[in-house]
Amino acid sequence: MTLESNTDAIRVLLVDDHDLFREGVKAMLQRHKHIDVVGEARNGFGALEQARKLMPDVVLLDVRMPGCNGLTVLGKMQKELPAVKVVMLTISEDDEDLFAAVRAGARGYVLKTIEPEGLVKAIEQVSRGEAVISPAVAVKLLNEFAALGSSYLGELDGDTPELTNREKEVLELVAQGLGNKEIAKALTIAERTVKSHLHNVVQKLQLHNRAEAAAYIVRSKMAHARARKGPHDA
């Protein structure tokens, strides 16, 4: 379904197989003049067709849909339409879905429980080239590894010897879902310094964005936990 477009706004394609949810999100977003829902799709095949036709700025994409799921669609979009930024908007808090989405190139992973203004902010951030991971997802994952302790990054020296202690602190807070302003406040440093540290982290670890940085630390914690557990404890 193609809608009339406001060329000055952030152009959004909304993809979800639940009509009621999709219509509700569209109605909410249309109250914001700087966001324009230019198209809709109820499945992966329709999403690809609409994305190719409309070239939206941002796609809000469900993970689990019948036929062609969101992760498959994401992979195809990244290959065919790399300029289109994709935010996974989902009920799934599964860490494997999160990691798969980040690896496939998603610029955001947001839960459907997000507040309306939070979704608007996520769209704005992603349209500016930033990445967004729902704090609820990051916190849930990190809580599973709370036994590893907050000093875990100090144990990564063998894997990340190039990171400074401050860069490790910034990386840990990114993984907890904090924004740059919150990190700056927590570490008592300037926001521009946070951005500089995060840029260094992404470059040193050969990552591409903030979302990958968050996923990196969570994956590292998972691997560390499995190593501690041992093959006979599984």
Helices and strands in order, then pairings?
Layout: E1 10-15, H1 19-29, E2 35-41, H2 44-54, E3 58-61, H3 70-80, E4 85-90, H4 95-104, E5 108-111, H5 116-127, E6 132-133, H6 135-144, H7 165-175, H8 180-187, H9 191-204, H10 210-229
Parallel strand pairs: 1-2, 1-3, 3-4, 4-5, 5-6
Oligomer: single chain
Spans with pLDDT under 50 lasting ≥5 residues? 145-152, 229-234
CATH architecture of the largest domain: 3-Layer(aba) Sandwich
Shape: globular
State the CATH class of the largest domain.
Answer: Alpha Beta
The total strand number stands at 6
Tell me, rounded to a whole number, the average pLDDT: 81
> Which superfamily, in CATH terms, is the homologous superfamily of the largest domain?
Response regulator
Terminal Cα separation, in Å? 48 Å
Radius of gyration: 18 Å
| Largest sheet descriptor | 6 strands, parallel
- Taken in chain order, the helices and strands follow as EHEHEHEHEHEHHHHH
Kindly state the percentage of residues in helix: 40-55%
Structural overview:
It is a single chain. The chain is an alpha/beta fold. It is built from ten helices and six strands, in the order βαβαβαβαβαβααααα. The protein has helices at residues 19-29, 44-54, 70-80, 95-104, 116-127, 135-144, 165-175, 180-187, 191-204, 210-229, and strands at residues 10-15, 35-41, 58-61, 85-90, 108-111, 132-133. A six-stranded parallel β-sheet has the order 2-1-3-4-5-6, with helices on both faces. Strand 4 (85-90), helix 4 (95-104) and strand 5 (108-111) form a beta-alpha-beta unit. Helix 4 packs across helix 10 (210-229) and helix 7 (165-175) packs across helix 10. It is globular.
